[in-house]
Amino acid sequence: YHGLFNHGATCYLNSVLQVLFMTEEFREAVISMSSSSKEYIDHHLKKLFKELLQRTANTKNILKALEVNYVTEQQDAAEYFEKILRKTSENAAKIFRGRLSHKITCLKCQTPTDSEGPFWLLPLELEDSPDGNYSVENGIKMFFTSTIFDGDNQLYCEICDDKVDATRKYVITHHPDVLLLMLKRFDFSYQFMSYIKINCKADIPHTIEIPENQMYELYAVVEHFGDLRGGHYDAVIKSKDEGDEWFVFNDSSVTQVKLIKAFYCQKIMINIQVVKKYIISSSRSIGAYLLFYRRKGEN
């Protein structure tokens, strides 16, 4: 595999572009597209992906299409992942698009209101578990557990014409082929009255179950190391083409993750537990930010 040139501080873009490239169904949808419509950036992605198959690639055209004017400023990888998908044709972007419903029920009159819309990712609040590490599995359970709004957090009910106790529950009405989970490491602190980065370790499961009995399998992780306004992104991705082996994509450098071996990024060690042949069963990471899961049974 080949890497991407860093034009200053564009590792945030390189990391998500490598995930998109290594998502075979997305790559094939982009490369097979015959139209060069300027409405979408598929033709830029197509050229980039073909170049990546042969050599270290340049992202100048993608940067221009995304209107990145200052390449020395660090940006948010999740934000630019969404920007790319919004500028990509429906046939390719639909792989990552799901639909989410959230139902709010007034506990006074029992009237439910239901709204539904598309989503690219599910944000998970980072909270320490009893052993001091964040559990992604618990985070998913919390996301789909009903939330009660009472006291100062009461919601307004049009039927009751008053603030009332209410519940809210999220339900996925369309499960995407690839589910993206975002660990909310960048959050606003009322103590410091500014955004901070949360550096807790996260336990990442190899497989997860989403309500409605949908199973997903991990195949890529975008990591961030460093502080809020700087630091560095890389991507750790499993390759179907190479017998399900894992690779670290760090800008122009691509290295394979060996069996039962710790790998280093920005001088921070991440221990990976591996079973069978290069299959991650679980991992604990201080840098994991975006987790990509492929729906099991999907090609």
Automatic annotation (TrEMBL):
TM spans (from-to): none
Pfam families xref list: UCH
Domain USP: 2-296
Single Gene Ontology BP annotation: protein deubiquitination
GO CC annotations, alphabetized: cytosol; nucleus
A single MF term (Gene Ontology): cysteine-type deubiquitinase activity
Organism domain of life: Eukaryota
PROSITE patterns: USP_1, USP_2, USP_3
PANTHER family linked: UBIQUITIN CARBOXYL-TERMINAL HYDROLASE
Full protein name: USP domain-containing protein
